[in-house]
Specification:
The protein is an alpha+beta fold. Helices cover 32% and strands 27% of the residues.
């Protein structure tokens, strides 16, 4: 009978202890964003939860992934709990590109803490160098233009229109202008005769010189023939 009471008492004590443990809320250290394997650049907003019944503080830190030395660099600290909200901002522009890990620690005492780690975060802050595309240069094509054929210009040719002078009718006297021409010729008769005889003398002189030249050439030819004989 005493043993049965002792067993029942122990069961009551264990049940009350487990009920008290279930009723007491537990802490949470959770990173919702960024997720593992994400590609990041610039300022990264860290979203998650940092709560605990005896909350003291929380901190965010990053490290190389993997990092054999387990060296973490703290970049943010919070003095108030956060439930599914913004935990902090991670400025990655001054960090070299590579793969990193992000850690959240929620302290519920000076030495006690909860933590979660997100791994495989790829930082890509170095913008790829975009090479300018070469602009194709148009090759000039030599186009031979046909030489224009000059259009013949019609030069107006002076056309001499000869108007036949009317023949004098029978019984009509010679016009006054013809009389003047005949009188002028008669008055210059002596000059015309002088010019005629001067031309005749010049012609005779030229023919005489030519005859003399021919005579001299014939005489030379006869001498040469005699010499050859």
């Amino acid at each position: 009978m005493i043993r049965l009471k002792t067993i029942l008492l122990l069961c009551l004590l264990v049940g009350s202890a487990s009920h008290a443990a279930q009723a007491q809320p537990t802490g949470q250290a959770q990173i919702i964003s960024p997720r593992a394997g994400s590609s990041l650049s610039g300022e990264v907003v860290v979203i998650g939860s940092a709560v605990h019944p005896t909350f003291v503080r929380y901190e965010l830190a990053f490290a190389y992934d993997p990092d054999p030395t387990d060296t973490w660099f703290t970049f943010w600290q919070g003095a108030a709990p956060v439930a599914e909200g913004e935990l902090g901002r991670w400025e990655t522009s001054g960090i070299s590109d590579g793969i990193y890990a992000l850690r959240l620690r929620v302290y519920f005492s000076e030495r006690g803490f909860l933590e979660t780690i997100v791994r495989g975060l790829q930082l890509n802050n170095t913008a790829p160098v975009v090479m300018p595309m070469a602009t194709p240069t148009a090759t000039p094509i030599a186009v031979t233009m046909p030489t224009p054929t000059p259009t013949p210009t019609l030069t107006p040719t002076a056309i001499l229109l000869l108007t036949a002078a009317p023949m004098p009718s029978a019984g009509v006297g010679v016009p006054a202008k013809e009389d003047e021409l005949l009188s002028a010729l008669m008055s210059n008769r002596s000059q015309i005769e002088a010019a005629f005889w001067a031309g005749a003398r010049l012609s005779l002189t030229i023919f005489g010189i030519l005859g003399l030249y021919v005579f001299i050439q014939e005489a030379r030819n006869k001498r040469r023939r005699r010499t050859h004989r």
